[in-house]
Amino acid sequence: MEKKYAKSAYRNFFFWSTCSSLGVTVSTLIDATLVGNFIGSKGLAVANIATPIFLLYSLLGITLGSGAGILIGKRLGAEDEERANRLFASVLSTGITVGVFFAVISVSFSNELCTFLGAEELLNLVWQYLFIVFCSAPIFVLYHILAAAVRTDGDPKLAAIASGGVIVTNLVLDILFMRVLNWGVAGASASLCIAETVGGLLLLAHFWKKQSLLKLRFALPQAKEIKNFIATGFGVGSSFIFQAAVIMVFNILLLQEATQAGIYAVAVFGVMYTMSTVPYALFDGAGAAASTVISILGGEKDQKGMLAVFYDGLRSVIIAGVILALAFALYTREILAFFGIAGDVSFDTAVAAFQIYAVSIVFAGINTLTTAFWQTIGRIRLAAAISILRNCVFMLAFGACLIPGRGIEGLAMAYVLGEGLCLVIMLCVLVFKSSKKYIEENYCFYNRVFERFYKIEEGSIDLLAKELEQVCEEWEIGYKQSMFINLITEELILNIIKFGLDSNEKQCYVSVKLMDNNDEYILRIRDNVRTYNPFDLRGDEVDRAAMRLITKKAKYYNYQRKLVFNYLYIII
């Protein structure tokens, strides 16, 4: 039963985090599809050449956002709202500063950057596409930071809604700018940047909600805080800059062929990468959900829950990876045709390459989730090392060997070999350096702890009262404190039953945890009923009197909605 809380929270966050990740992915697919059909293979090549810039902005936003999100989650799990808000204010200020800096640098050296990306043959088109993106750097960075903060603060649904706003806005503006106004690649770029702005504005709505724990404010970041954001988020965020480097190098290697053949190969690579964003969005959603839930459970020292989330996530990404890889392999021709790739003499080669590439998707899900897990529990160096090997070293080494001789097929083989070798290394690490042992050593409460899980039903309160009395005797807790602990627990659970349950609600549970904190005792009651605050003093006079007594006698009390649960936290 103790794993039910962790799994139910993870599955809720997994669903909404995946929807959120898919928002950016679908926007990319919309751009690529419409560009391919409205402009042709040159348009697809331009979009693919520009991809490293989007990945750079994702690196900045996701490294800062995921790093801060993990640290904030641990503070929220430990009931330290003040520190959590300080970290949020600091990462917001850092994100704005970094975004503005990169916007200024990118605009100032726009021609040089376009040339550096390998755009000699398409320099004018690439510049048109990227200039608007350069100016929008702060928007892309802040979007990722806000999305991570909103998820950590228990509102993954809004993050998904914001992604939906990005999709709809991008689709409408793409058609308007490219089809109606005939703005070409500049229209595709402008629509995506405006859509990202709309998504960011929707995310901001969270911080005006009454139940939000994080408040929208800014603070001068300390050097130590920035270092911690980067170190904690590097394992996941760094993958984007390495992907950018790999894509840029692979584009250059493909374009070394005859001009027309090279552009065709880059266009096919663009379709591969664009389609791979669908499974990668799912994998990123699984990793983001795991990071959010595990960080908060880590702050609570819930070791079994942390491991339960990891294993549940592994099952999800393995099943999804196999299904998507088969779909890509079976419908390759239809996918390429959908993006406007014509069936000329090179078409069969493109089909074979795409089918080879599909195999790497199965390995990628496991690698992505494991890296996010290691990063969240504090194995930062291990996560960073795996990210560097997986997303850079292996890819560049295999690509440099295979692409010059085998072209787009060699590129596909490089992805399969890189992901596969990385998976072998990860499995060896999981066997010889147990994460379970690491969690047991680093997430333990050193004093005495009592924790039980109960179904909210008739008879549970009596059972809980007996077990609490037994614990109080074993711990030699004083008579007055013992009576007060029992009173608090019984009254709070009675109020949950009276006012927190709906008649048609599914089976609900309550977790009662008592911690010996030297001269005081910490009582945490967690339930999975709908949002309900017992300190609102509902009920009859007896109920209200009992709750007033609790608030008066407790050293500290607080009610929060975290993950998908209600938390009552009381120091006696």
Summarize the structure.
By secondary structure, the chain is an alpha+beta fold. The chain contains 18 helices and five strands.
Protein described:
By secondary structure, the protein is α+β, with helices and mostly antiparallel strands. 76% of the residues lie in helices and 7% in strands. It is built from 18 helices and five strands. It has helices at residues 2-38, 41-77, 81-108, 110-116, 123-135, 137-152, 156-180, 185-204, 223-254, 259-299, 303-330, 332-338, 347-377, 380-432, 435-442, 460-474, 479-500, 541-553, and strands spanning 449-455, 509-517, 520-527, 556-562, 565-571. It has a five-stranded antiparallel β-sheet with strand order 1-2-3-5-4. Helix 9 (223-254) runs antiparallel to helix 13 (347-377). The radius of gyration is 26 Å and the shape is elongated. The model has no long low-confidence stretch (mean pLDDT 82).
